[in-house]
Write a structure and sequence with these properties.
seven-stranded mixed beta sheet, elongated, alpha+beta
């Protein structure tokens, strides 16, 4: 079966299908190919957002050196937990410091404030101990200590760890001192030799005339700090040399090396409140200075001395019957042209509050309207100032106030001084020296030379009388007479009848008497003869007396030039 196609001319032309163009979505359909870039875009945005959201704050730390710090390795820690990492380490534009850029973990934004502190933890050894030994293995890291304040991103790192960490229970106070002394950061603070705090730092005051020391007192000892608490410095060795002698006080080795501060609250009738935080206190040099500061009234008086004040210095005590009531503040030397003499004004500071009064009801007080008036009343009763030796070992002097009734009230300065004057009396040494000088002047006024010459002449006259030829002739004649009498008696003894026993006995007695007379004359001749010791002794006595007169004259001349040599001896120059 065949089919035949009858094509017309139009039908003989080949038919081509016509393409139709339609707009996408015209029929509401969405092609899936567009979902791929959309999902990638959303996923990338989500990753960027999550990365940004999880990233912590960026900070910049400034240190003097980057020793032990490495970018990408050095961690930032807080209580041994990683809270960040160092990103880069660069020098500052002026090359003076190191800038450390670091990133902190998410969640630390609220802790990065103006009160936050950063420091590098390295192995350290100090008087307070050894720290940072763990960094010998793990390497150095940066320690972070959060604090309170406004948000901040640039920080100046600490070169040393803070003495008191955040969260430590206690109270901070401020001490003011004239000098730093032996104190340093970390110096301990003691109460009854128990360490209860430490010094946090030091800096000059605003007027540059003192030092400020912030301190920290731990709980529960901060309750001991009252409004009237006193602080004083306690070094390792405290050596005091004054009119009382030597006083040595030694503390522990820690105080010897680091110094220390002690405080105490005096017991008073008035109750004091607990001191508020950051209250300012005065730091005294010693406990003695604390006691002196308890007296508020300070009166200045001037004393005039004419003798030597060697051994008296600024700071020496003014005492009344062994109790210190003041101190010396200044010493000068003045020349009086009218009298052509020197005088020494000594300015003293007296604390009248040390003088308490026992009063009964109905009895009028004698203190007067002012402390000056009270002391003037005591002066009228005989109060005088006198220099006394406090220690013969050190030679230091002190001013003693005591009553000396009957002594004249003599004011040297008169109205020329701006300070009220207290009368003085000479020292005991001056009185002794004056008495000895007066006595020696009287001795010097005696005609010792004339008396010696007259005595020497008298002895020479006696010597001439004894050694005169007439005296010797008389002694020889007496001896010859005695010899003749002895011969006569011997002859009579031979011729007289023995029966005249009475006469014989009488002649024997006479012979014995004559014999004694002869012996006596011989002794007299031995005593007063030319070679007799009596004559030689008298001549030597005259010589010794003349030498003594010369010695007394030299002694008087020496005392006139140096009266003090009577007590202290001659100088080496004089001895030579």
């Amino acid at each position: 079966m065949s089919t035949e196609l009858h094509e017309t001319p139009e039908e003989n032309t080949l038919s081509i299908p016509e393409a139709k163009v339609e707009q996408v979505g015209k029929h509401g359909g969405v092609q899936l190919v567009w979902f791929i870039p959309l999902v990638a875009l959303l996923l990338g945005g989500w990753l960027v957002f999550t990365t940004w959201a999880e990233q912590g704050p960026k900070i910049v730390l400034t240190f003097k050196t980057a020793e032990g710090i490495e970018a990408g390795k050095t961690r930032i820690k807080h209580k041994a937990v990683d809270v960040g990492v160092v990103d880069s380490v660069v020098l500052s534009p002026d090359f003076s410091t190191v800038l450390i850029h670091a990133s902190l973990v998410n969640g630390t934004e609220g802790f990065v404030t103006s009160g936050t502190k950063f420091w590098v933890v390295r192995p350290q050894m100090s008087l307070r101990g050894i720290s940072g030994l763990g960094t010998l293995v793990s390497g150095a890291h940066i320690e972070m200590e959060p604090g309170k304040g406004t948000p901040q991103r640039n920080f100046k790192g600490l070169e040393t760890p803070p003495s008191v960490r955040v969260g430590a229970l206690g109270t901070r106070y401020m001490l003011e001192a004239t000098t730093l002394g032996s104190l340093d950061v970390g110096s301990p603070i003691y109460y009854r030799d128990i360490p209860v705090g430490q010094v946090l730092g030091y800096e000059l005051t605003q007027d540059k005339k003192g030092v400020e020391l912030p301190i920290f007192i731990q709980e529960p000892y901060n309750a001991l700090i009252r409004e009237n608490t006193r602080f004083w410095e306690t070094s390792g060795v405290d050596l005091v040399v004054d009119a009382s002698g030597f006083r040595l006080h030694s503390s522990s080795m820690t105080r010897l090396l680091m110094g220390g501060i002690t405080f105490n609250t005096p017991d008073t009738f008035e109750s004091s409140q607990v001191a508020a935080e950051n209250k300012r206190f005065t730091l005294f040099k010693s406990e003695v200075a604390v006691a002196e500061d308890s007296y508020t009234q300070k009166l200045l008086f001037v004393l005039y001395f004419k003798g030597s004040v060697r051994g008296l210095g600024v700071g020496n005590s003014v005492e009344f019957r062994g109790i210190q009531v003041g101190k010396v503040t200044d010493i000068r030397l003045e020349y009086d042209f009218q009298e052509s003499t020197f005088r020494i004004p000594v300015l003293v500071q007296i604390e009248p509050e040390r003088f308490s009064e026992i009063s009964t009801s109905g009895v009028k007080s004698v203190r007067g309207d002012s402390p000056y008036e009270f002391l003037q009343i005591l002066v009228k009763q005989g109060l005088r100032a006198q220099l006394k030796t406090g220690s013969y070992l050190t030679g230091q002097l002190f001013v003693e106030l005591d009553f000396h009734p009957g002594t004249p009230l003599t004011l040297v300065g008169g109205s020329q001084t701006v300070f009220q004057e207290l009368p003085t009396i000479p020292t005991s040494l001056d009185e002794i020296t004056a008495s000895v000088t007066e006595f020696l002047k009287k001795i010097h006024a005696l005609p010792l030379e004339g008396i010696g010459q007259e005595l020497q002449g008298t002895l020479k006259g006696a010597n001439r009388a004894i050694n005169a030829p007439e005296t010797l002739e008389m002694i020889r004649a007496a001896a010859a007479a005695l010899s003749e009498v002895r011969v006569l008696l011997k002859t009579l003894n031979q011729q007289v009848d023995p029966m005249a026993s009475g006469v014989v006995g009488a002649s024997g007695a006479a012979t014995a008497t004559l014999r004694q007379l002869e012996e006596t004359l011989v002794k007299v001749d031995g005593l007063i003869g030319p070679k007799a010791p009596l004559q030689y002794g008298m001549v030597e006595a005259v010589r010794e007396l003349a030498a003594a007169a010369r010695s007394v004259r030299s002694f008087i001349d020496l005392l006139e030039r140096k009266p003090e040599s009577l007590l202290f001896g001659k100088d080496k120059e004089l001895s030579r």
